[in-house]
Amino acid sequence: MIAEIFSKSRQRIFAPLTKAKIIPIKFTIGRANHEYLDLTSIEKQEDNKDSGSVSAGYGYLTDKWFSGVSLEYQKSFKSGDVMDYCTPINDASTATQCEEIAFGKPTEKVRHNASIEFRYRPLNENFAVAVKFTKDFKNNEEFAEIPIYLLESEKLGLNSGIRITWDSKSNDIGGKLFFGTSFNFF
User: Fold this and answer.
1) Is 153:175 a contact under the CB 8 Å cutoff?
2) 100 vs 164: which has the higher pLDDT
3) Per-residue pLDDT averaged across 60-89, rounded?
4) For residue 84, what are the contacts with CB-CB under 8 A and spacing of at least 6?
5) 8 Å CB contact between 36 and 103
6) Is residue 13 over pLDDT 60?
7) How far, in Å, CA of 156 to CA of 6, rounded?
8) 14: helix, coil or strand?
9) Are strands 96-103 and 25-38 parallel, antiparallel or unpaired?
10) Which string of b and e fits 115-150 if b means at least 16 CB within 10 Å?
């Protein structure tokens, strides 16, 4: 019911819209607690790290397609590899107690991304496709993502499809089935 009301409201608002220029600006910030094993003291440590991003772009929207470009600065932290760490239960015992913990401090990752994106959806069709290519100039890496929306239920506000991804660091091509909210240009 709510999805149907939202869909009808969206159609009333955007139906007269045939062309629009869009300038998206986005800020994100977050804090994560990283628990890890300090490799010099062999003791558990905790460290709170702040991550965030800022991006700006420009896009052009019609009733069937969207194209846009964006620039983004990202700063994040990644925990070290998780391994089993085992310690004696007490000094007199040979039995051990094990837990999974990250080895080493979290590492900072900074990205300077430039992206180009194109989305296409024929009117009154369940099919839609979006293609996004991103270049990280700081780390000299490239990423591509192509979600293909195959089935959509306007009544429920849901869709499903296939997402194809590629990244230059591992040179892997991946694919996933997805289920989510309805395709949207925004």
Assistant:
1) no
2) 164
3) 90
4) 98, 99, 100
5) yes
6) no
7) 10
8) helix
9) parallel
10) bebebebeeeebebbbbbebebeeeeeebebebebe
